[in-house]
Design goal:
Bound molecules: heme C
Order of helices and strands: HHHHHH
Distance between the termini: 24 Å
CATH topology of the largest domain: Cytochrome Bc1 Complex, Chain D, domain 2
Structural class: mainly alpha
Number of helices: 6
Number of domains: 2
Oligomer: single chain
CATH class of the largest domain: Mainly Alpha
Shape: globular
Length: about 120
């Protein structure tokens, strides 16, 4: 999932993402005290590249929708520390607190995807 070019599936995002309280609490529970609503607000700055619902709008940016919270948070901390190198994401991640990262992870992991593989030949 590092490069959107490798994602060959169509991934229409369900508009009713937030309708299911059960789904929402599952995402938040995975992050302990994470605040999904705060994550949603914070994600406004990510939308220009990663799309408003986490389906990437930039050709070189990966989809974040439905990304497992643990993986998501680990990547952001790695960009922040410099362990994972990327000029743009380093600048983006630097000002984020652990709380911001957990909230963003709760938001993006709560987005549900519907993946459609290409038809068999
Ligand atoms: C200017 C465009 C841009 C913006 C704005 C941006 N990103 Fe990114 N993001 C990228 C690109 C490009 C990559 C791929 C970097 C790489 O190759 O490591 C990426 C990678 C990531 C990854 C790693 C995904 C993976 O599959 O490992 C995460 C997580 C992420 N961004 C989260 C965010 C969050 C959260 C925000 C907002 C706070 C944000 N990004 C804002 C361009 C952007």
């Amino acid at each position: 999932m590092r490069q959107s070019g490798h994602v060959k599936f169509r991934v229409p995002v369900l508009a009713s993402v937030l309708a299911g309280a059960a789904l929402v609490s599952t995402g938040a529970a995975a992050q302990g005290q994470a605040n999904m609503e705060a994550g949603r607000a914070k994600a406004a700055t990510c939308a220009v590249c990663h799309g408003p619902a986490g389906v990437s709008s930039a050709p070189d940016a990966p989809h974040l929708a439905g990304m497992p919270a643990i993986y998501f948070a680990r990547q952001l901390r790695a960009y922040r520390s410099g362990e994972r190198k990327h000029e743009v994401m380093a600048v983006i991640a630097r000002p984020l607190s652990d709380e911001d990262i957990n909230n963003l992870a709760a938001w993006y992991s709560a987005i549900r995807l519907d993946a459609t593989p290409p038809p068999a030949p």
